[in-house]
Amino acid sequence: MTTLAQVKRVTRPLLERNSDLALVGRLVVIKPVRHLIRGVLIDRSPNPVKHRPVWLVSFLFKPWTLLGERWGERLFTKRGSVLQDLSDPERNLEVARIMSAQMRLPVRERRYPESWGGWVAYDPTVADEMCEVIEEQALPMLRALQSIDDFVAFTADRSRFPWTRLGPNYSDEPFVFAAQGNFEAAVAACTRLVAEEPAGPRVKELLRLLADGDRQGVAALLHVWEAEAVKRLRLESVWEPTPFPIEAAA
Fold this sequence. Notes:
Layout: H1 4-17, E1 21-24, E2 27-30, E3 36-43, E4 50-59, E5 72-74, H2 89-103, E6 119-120, H3 126-143, H4 148-155, H5 173-180, H6 183-196, H7 201-211, H8 215-232, H9 245-248
Antiparallel strand pairs: 1-2, 2-3, 3-4, 4-5, 4-6
């Protein structure tokens, strides 16, 4: 995997050109953080000499918050990547052979065909190109997501997220609907979550507050979860606590 020092090096031009960005570990995050986390994760890759940038958006006010690709996508070099087209069995076999041979070498000696594309850490041009791709493909889209309502509209788009869209998946919906003040939808989703999965007491606490119509209690619980997620992800320096829509509607 690439090192944190390499991540700092490759993202330096991006941070210098964009004052609303901060680097927290491997995450380039748009600041300030208010309920939503928007950014690009320079993730670990199975290939130890390559970066794996993924744009993502998620929300912080739930009992568990992990950075992933439910609402996100990998960013590829401008010339593409061998991983973008895995439909040719013969090509896949050749890729597997090369990977197998390279994995037997020390990390610093591994080299892959240039035609494969990818963000190779030892390529001196990778920083400029990666920063340009992030600025062109990810940041305009992510900066437009300013509110929870924006997030709901974006992640509910079936054409963008056919399998992970917000709506049919009840593992995240209770918290989003609760934050919006949509008690009917929140109760329905939370009831399903509690009934169909071994949810912990914290989700059951949310359901109780929703069932009681306790807007202040729901908001207070969401604030607690958000603060815990911010601490867990080390985002304290870029976080601005703000009221939820449910509080404005109270």
